[in-house]
Predict the structure.
Amino acid sequence: MKEKIRIGICGYGNLGRGVEYAVKQQTDMELVAVFSRRDPASVQTVAPDTPKFSIDEIARFQDNIDVMILCGGSATDLPKQTPMLAAYFNTIDSFDTHARIPEHFDAVDKVAQASEHVSIISVGWDPGLFSINRVLAEAVLPQGSTYTFWGKGLSQGHSDAIRRLEGVKNGVQYTLPIEEAVEKVRRGEQPELSTSEKHQRECFVVLEEGADALIIEQQIKTMPDYFSDYDTTVHFISEEELKENHSSMPHGGMVMRSGVTGEATQQNFEFNLNLGSNPEFTGSVLVAYARAAYKMKLKGDKGAKTVFDVTLNDLSHQSSEELRKNYL
Amino acid sequence: MKEKIRIGICGYGNLGRGVEYAVKQQTDMELVAVFSRRDPASVQTVAPDTPKFSIDEIARFQDNIDVMILCGGSATDLPKQTPMLAAYFNTIDSFDTHARIPEHFDAVDKVAQASEHVSIISVGWDPGLFSINRVLAEAVLPQGSTYTFWGKGLSQGHSDAIRRLEGVKNGVQYTLPIEEAVEKVRRGEQPELSTSEKHQRECFVVLEEGADALIIEQQIKTMPDYFSDYDTTVHFISEEELKENHSSMPHGGMVMRSGVTGEATQQNFEFNLNLGSNPEFTGSVLVAYARAAYKMKLKGDKGAKTVFDVTLNDLSHQSSEELRKNYL
């Protein structure tokens, strides 16, 4: 029997949990251990018997883990952790602070080149699968416009902004594409659209006792950066209703390219994700790219990589022969 | 200035024409010549000044063309031409006889390994971009079902079958996805669907004078392999109407994967093409992969390849740095 790819998870929140679920679905992988900054005994993994360790012990697993999947945040965790861990492991991260990607790539590359590991950064669906489709669509249709729409999806940042308001007990915010804008793109009009012309925002808010709904609604709708530029709807609901109907973390969206070929032939390209759980899907993408990192390392590749450097062949558990026979 | 990638086109029908249009849109390529089995003087290229030669002269262009794009048919042209031309050039073809792909790959690989060229076979949208999405979706969502829907699109084979009937002067056939089947997949029901349960067929037929519409309709609807298993609609129209409304070659379709993660979370993946012209879009895909073949050859790669072996990095005219900065 072929040996399984040995996976480690560094950081265990919603994303780490999604990765644990995803590894279980892959027949060519096994989860070796979860590493956390918290007391390992306090970490509630999906499988109760998943080995858990302090992140301080991670380096001693160097020879027991083929790929370390980093599940920390982009703000403070990954800029430190990915370069640090690339010294010991092939790594996957979901670094998504757009403006700092080149800098993060260079920092990781320096370490991974020296340690001869493969480190794929900024993996997930956006950045990730959406990025792939933006490049693919533009390579095939150089004359045209590309659009990214997000939603319907729960936005963590906007939900936090609502919850910080005085008088708000709890709340969530969904980003939704504006259907009229989507249809304009599909019709080939190639409109120029700002983010707020493509999306609307819908908030579900639980008030503290005695809080004034009108004032809170006004505060949300006029909040700069987050809501003031958007068509925003605010619904007030009970804590029970929030728990009942708004506890999952759906997301998704689409990448569209409206292009022209020949004299004036309209060509539409569309990639669409409708995700019941954002962290579970993102975890599934990270796990697929862990396989790619493993296969690329076996072939002698090294250094920092992105989804743009990975072939479908390396991403799949099928052999090249099987792929040609069954998927072309 | 960077030197342009020098492209040749072998075979000049609708697809060759699409390739000529597509090369013009790419800033890093130039079309060197078109090769045809016909008398070169009789070939009507898009640009009147495109150099045209007999296919018999093709080998002497060995040092003047970086990538030869083969635009012949899969039945008889490509099985001979691709192995023959891989001796002289990096090549791209759109070989789509599904059952013979492994055999075609081996024949091309043997020549391209020896001549040290890169030959990417079975490029287009299906096989091609659809194949990529089937592999990508399954790698990320191993638990689930993948569906391919075609249409709305003009089917050449089915149109030919109609036109062969006695009493039929002209006609076209469109394949359409059955919307109810698409919705079932989107709802996550993972139904088992045969090709005829996913598609319906719509025919527009011009009768010869004196032909009996009822008999022709019956002959179409009961034609084995082509129509008898399908929900088929037949419209009779005038020759003028056919020319006016049914002269373009639209096509498209979608690849969907309905997957499950975690305990029972529904995740939907969808790739959608809506093409105003099938040959122009296919030509655009071939041209993008010509760039990839060129870049792979420069890096020392060789042999037969498929879309599964190509990175986005090699497909794009942008540098890795630009891609990371602007597309992730």
The first helix of chain B runs from residue 14 to 25. Chain B is about 35% helix and 25% strand. Residues 5-125+279-327 of chain B form a domain with the Rossmann fold fold (CATH 3.40.50.720).
